[in-house]
Amino acid sequence: MSDREQYTPGPASGAEVRKDGEKWTLILIRELRHSPEKVWQALIDPAQLREWAPFVVDGSLGTVGTTVNLTWVGTPTPLETRVTRADAPKLLEYADIRWELEASGKGTRLTLSTKLDRRFISMGAAGWHISFDVLDRLLGGTPITRDEAMEAGWQRLNVEYAQQFGIKAPNWQLKNK
Amino acid sequence: MKIKVTSLYVDDQDKALRFYTEVLGFAKKSDFSNGPFRWLTVASPEEPDGTELQLALNNNPAAKAYQQAIFQQSQPAAMFFTDDVKGDYERIKARGAEFTMPPTDVTASTIAMLNDTCGNLIQLTQLAHY
Q: How much is the ipTM here?
């Protein structure tokens, strides 16, 4: 419990956007303290994805050409999603999502590229930022739930990323306890 | 007098909060509990100090009957305004939400209807002169 109470996401960082029409590409880079092999498993294994990612899948994402049902948090309808690249433990691609893993010291430099509607790019960055925190703790053996982590700072990160990307930031007057 | 908050009955407040924030893009504004009662509201990032939407737990049999009846009549329980109904439709549908009506031109506006997964239909409206 004390870990959960102490969790506060760090400042918005490691993100870049490529602006092209209505759909922008969000690139998020995170250094994780775990090996590429361990991170790779967390990217493809349905049981681990359920804990940290903003979606659930009903099968492994680890084999190119397979199709899984992918359900985003909060939505009722699974989306048929085909794995288009799966080069363990380096490159994984499905839908609009591309993951690159590079060994970095004893850990992994994880790069996410994903396409998002420009109006929701800061929301997406904030959501993935928090998912990465949850992933890091899951792999480190001190898990927190994604719902709790979202509570702890998604709105603040949304504002910070909006400012970094040079888009209109929501001006939250937070009243949460 | 001001209209500061409007209420919507939902069958599960945690599920509703995820849908209204992560799928629709609103953000939580208030969340206070008093025993079994939970006052939960969201607001739009485009209008953070605008009207709040209360996500109220529907544990009242009379309200449940009313909610189910208007749902079955395809009547929206709430209506949100947007300046890009097509864009919202594409984005929300791409996430896997269920629309019961795609963007459709009607008198002076374009509307779409979606299922909020919590017992309600929600209408999105874009006025023609927006």
A: 0.70
